[in-house]
Design goal:
The protein is mainly alpha-helical. The chain has a domain at 29-46 and 56-154: Tetratricopeptide repeat domain (Serine Threonine Protein Phosphatase 5, Tetratricopeptide repeat), CATH 1.25.40.10. It is 63% helix and 3% strand. It has 14 helices and three strands. Helix 5 (105-117) runs antiparallel to helix 6, helix 7 packs across helix 8 and helix 11 (212-224) crosses helix 12 (228-240). The longest helix is centred in the C-terminal third of the chain and has 29 residues, at 267-295. It is flat and about 65 Å long. The protein starts with a helix and ends in a 6-residue tail after the last helix.
Length: 301
């Protein structure tokens, strides 16, 4: 009975499919390396020069003058050898993509690790993916995990997210450690962690007991980040009264905010809530949704 109830809740929230797909292989993607001199301008995948309408990869110096890939590589190499961590990350990408140099995944991995040692945890994070996939060295899951843990220890939210994902399934599943890493990922501004935490707290597992209040709190953080899935899932919890009071008006506001943020779900739910609240209640919820969205618009520079 408990299992069936949990399945019903997860299905109603729309969480199970999204998280299942994520756990089946999607990995947190590293942030792009910060610009370094020379600057790398990627306007799309490299294309043959005779392909009309195709965008190409270009390189410029610090004054935006075009330079060759070989010259760009030389400058990045000099900066990396001088100890600049960001240059090391960029150099790894030059080796990985064969920009101005012969493609070399061993060198790519070496410079990823060097970047981590030089103080940029993204280097450890990327090295973890290389080691996991066997790019630049024999696949080594233990070494990949060690690199990932170094990145997480240094505070990289993406590393916490990946560790949380890995610890939710497989022979080393550990729900409490997964929750701790996902909490850190959420603090670091990654809303996917909110939806994964909500699923974990609703379902429970290992030594993590089912707790709808915690699930709702996680979704509230994801909603504050403007994530459409978190907004929609929080709307469901408000409508159903899971983890807190039942609040149709708040549910409608959240559904409308989710829709504005990109959610393309069933509009019949919104219509049903509007009918339930009546014209005045629906108008108030719509006004609150607009105000909520307006308060989160970036300040124009």
């Amino acid at each position: 009975m408990k299992t069936r109830a949990a399945i019903f809740i997860l299905a109603a929230l729309g969480l199970s499919i999204a998280v299942f797909l994520y756990l089946q292989g999607r990995q947190a993607q590293p942030r792009p390396p910060a610009p370094s001199s020379p600057a790398l301008h990627d306007s799309g995948p490299p294309a043959p020069a005779d392909s009309p309408g195709q965008r190409t990869l270009t390189f410029t110096d610090s004054e935006q003058n075009p330079i060759s890939p070989q010259e760009a590589f030389g400058r990045i190499l000099a900066a990396a050898e001088a100890g600049e961590a960001t240059a090391m990350l960029n150099l790894a990408e030059f080796y990985g993509n064969g920009w101005g140099v012969r493609q070399n995944f061993t060198e790519r991995l070496r410079w990823q690790q060097n970047a981590g040692e030089a103080g940029d945890p993204r280097g450890f994070f990327r090295a973890a993916h290389s080691l996991e996939a066997g790019l630049g060295a024999e696949a080594d899951q233990a070494a990949a995990r060690a690199a990932l843990e170094k990145a997480a220890k240094a505070g990289l939210a993406e590393a916490h997210l990946k560790l949380g994902q890995d610890l939710l399934a497989g022979p080393e599943a550990d729900a409490s450690r997964a929750a701790a890493h996902l909490e850190e990922a959420l603090k670091g501004g990654l809303p996917l962690a909110a939806n994964m935490l909500a699923l974990l707290y609703l379902q429970g597992g290992g030594d993590v007991g089912a707790d709808a209040v915690k699930a709702r709190a996680a979704l509230e953080q994801g909603a504050e980040l403007g994530d459409p899935e978190a907004l929609k899932n929080l709307a469901v919890m408000n409508r159903q009264g899971w983890g807190g009071p039942q609040n149709p008006a708040e549910a409608l506001k959240l559904y409308l905010a989710a829709q504005a943020a990109g959610w393309t779900g069933d509009g019949e739910i919104i219509s049903a809530l509007k009918a339930e609240l009546g014209p005045r209640g629906a108008q108030e919820a719509e006004a609150e949704a607009r105000a909520w969205l307006e308060s989160r618009k970036p300040i124009s520079q």
